[in-house]
## 1
Amino acid sequence: MEFRILGSVQIHDERFGVRIVPAGAKQRALLGALLVRAGQAVPAECLVEELWGGQPPVNAANALQAHVARLRRLLPAPGPGGPRHVWLRTSPLGYTLSLGPAATDAQRFHRLVGQGRELAATAPGRAVEVLREGLALWRGPALQGSGQGPICSAEAALLEESRLRALEVLYDVCLRADRCAEITGELEELVAVHPLRERFHEQLMTALHRCGRRAEALSTYDRARRRLARDLGIGPGQVLSRRREAILRSCEPAADSADRAGAGTAGQGGDELGVLREELVRLRGHVELLRRQQRELSEQVARLTAHHPCGP
């Protein structure tokens, strides 16, 4: 049994080859929120906020109970002779989804990425296979179609950041293994979708240069520089600038980006400014989400009592 959130919310029962897809946005939001907080009691007030935002129905408690009852009917029953498992429990503290022997595709993704990081230094070819296996679990944006409630939207943003960092690790390993030609197309697509993420630009420049496409590598730098100046009012960071200088000299800098594959973070080797810059870009990329969540949480705090906290 596997619950899937790397895309639209789904339940896969491998015993019978059955895929269960919750019908309706409210059912998807409810299951998504409970999966994000699996093993924890989620107060009813938080689930009402997740499903209806600042406009709950007149009798929100009854409406929520009806959705919970429908979700219980949706959850798989035990197979013939199999042990009975209570998926969803109700308590004074709220509703708790117990995964039991089941797992989520997000857990599998994180496990595979961790294995890929460990293999990067000693077995780069195998590391590429494992990392691609983990990334292949993604069917679309995390928790797609589960609404914009604070629980699901915050988790979706965290998962997306994990996906992008896994891609950075993958491409560093590919560069280390001299598999540049196979990643240039992928990186070109990524810099178009994430134009403020300097790491992808730097990796693309490296791959293009090693493929003998020096002019295109330098053009990649120029496009990144213009976009950073236009959108953020800043210039390229040290890592990106050093890559350009190395290409102009037609040599590799001492601290090559591929040597950072095992850690999977940008700007190691003392480049604290590079780390801060990447954090700035990441936070600015999520600024609208954070502003919306701040408004929603302020409204929620005004309605809830101290006896029913919504924290994890």
## 2
Amino acid sequence: MKRRTLRALIAIACCAFCGALPLRAQETTPFSEGLELPGIANYAPANVSAGALAEGPAVDLFLDAKLAEDGNLVAKGLIWRIFGSDTGPDGKLPLLATAEGGSTRLQLSPGSYLVHAAFGRAGATTRITLQRNEPRHETMVLNAGGLRLEGVLPDNIPMREDKLSFDIYDAQEQEDGERRLILPDVRPGRTVRLNAGTYHVVSNYGDVNATIRADIRVEAGKTTTAKVEHRAAQVTLNLVRGENGFPLADTAWSILGPSGDIIAENVGAFPTMILAAGDYTVLAKNKNRVFQRDITIRPGRDIVVKVDTETAEQIAQ
């Protein structure tokens, strides 16, 4: 039996993002989860700790952010964090102030601070120094974009999206050969916010062997839509006694690959799973009897496989 080679079809569609325009389609903006984009970026309320105002009169700090150097201001979805520049007794920088929304205004004592802006999984950090009686306006460029992941089957056959998920990894391998997991179990159609760069995406259709891997690049200020083509199908297994027999309960199933290795196992009268296209051998065990049948999975062609105890090959144990 020959295994069919899986392939990934990555269709990259980049579209410019304008943070000040209303949200019209997920494909054209890194914002997700129903975020609204008002025309005016209001200043978000800030939460400032007492330590940030311990010395001297407060100085205004105005903060806003862009996804790209030539982009518009991000109007919503930012998380701002202000840290002191000196480590505390625990060896960590103290968190002095936070704010959420778009642009924000903080009042801090003169001194040096680290400002971190987070936008989903994207973020940037800068160091600032506030002088007495000198308000400061800081615009941070996040160098970030959006990634929208979708799955397709050949010939425009509808996909079972509830069986599809994506894991996003760093593109660079670590010393142990593994990649750092950035975001697991991303559902199809969701747009995630990421720093610009290349990411390694693993697409899983079902939980057996229908897996596609691809490296995808995210550009600053744009959304990249990646469509991953899976060559797989869903199979439902029945062990029956006679052509019109009812599926037998308490049946143990094993799916073997061409080399005889076990691909999947299950127990029940109606087990269902998604398999990559290719040839397999199905083993059904019921009451100390084992039956087998060879099957072929074709891309996008869901099937019900009936193993008939009266006609299937029985294996001696």
## 3
Amino acid sequence: MIIFRYLLAEVFKSQLAVFVILMTIIISQRFVKILADASEGELPGQLVMSIVALKLPQLAVIILPLSAFVGILVAYGRVYADSEMTVLHATGVSEWYVTRLTLLLSLVLAVVAGAVTLYLSPWATEQEYRLLEKADANAGLISLVPGRFQHTSNENAVIFVQSISRDNGELQKVFVAQNNARDTLGDHSIVYAMSGNVKEDISGAQMMQLEQGRRYAGDVKSPAFEITEFGRYQIQIREQEVEQRRRKLGSLPTSELYGMDSNEAIAEWHWRIAIPLSIPLLALIAVPLSRVNPRQGKFGRLLPALLLYLGYYSLLIIARSALEDGKIPPALGMWWLHLSALVVGVVLIMRHRSSAQRFQAWLAGRT
């Protein structure tokens, strides 16, 4: 039991460390991109952290199999490099025992990955769509960036705001250029106001209410312009209806996806199943690949193992693309890849004579 807990703890700590490191690196890159979108006014700044949080399950789907695989290689590589595994073998701990222990942990991780892939990730993707749609519906004050020229959501005007009060959201020194083809005062107009704010009427349309300013209107081909001073002036910046964002299959619940018969839906379903299935299969491959001589160090076989992982993952992507194009029968799906990975893992384990003998004895005991 002590050996069981020790090996289990070593593998889990390594997997957790790899997962945290990879998640930190990737989420930092996504965070920079999201911040860039927010600084350009494409995304409200208030939604940055919410979008980042909803990205976590989507990124975890990619990182979980890799962290499980690399964690086993690093943990057992250190145990072999420090000759601890040699001592364990001398005390009767077989490599088949180590394999079973690793498979037990990988099955637990597969259940977690399955929950993330089949349920949490689609839910997070759908929530991200809804959040962005809500931001589109509330586009107005929330999307205005001080010191930047921006189009209104209905593309009828360009707005420049020098500053926005943090206390009450009041706009200071507002410039608006409008294209008013139906305006009685002219085809084009420029409005400058000292202050303003954004309000929504009962129909859902958003209006910018400006105060204490001037409006210059006229035809750009004519030198004649009308100048109107006003105490209060309103401009519509968003129509009542907001177009719904087009969903990808990644946002659909797995239960709904299973009932669809399109090639894209079938490929998405097989992909979601492939992620949790790959974890125990990769664990089966990682255990024999983690054997290193003390002279090699704990990272002795990390590079060839990673190349093998990249090959397997690339084949999964190719199979998904082939399923989407209808080049692979839906019944075959990605099962042939999983079976191939299982065969590779068993062959690597059976190459070690003592492991083969233990495995055969275990099979004989089962029959």
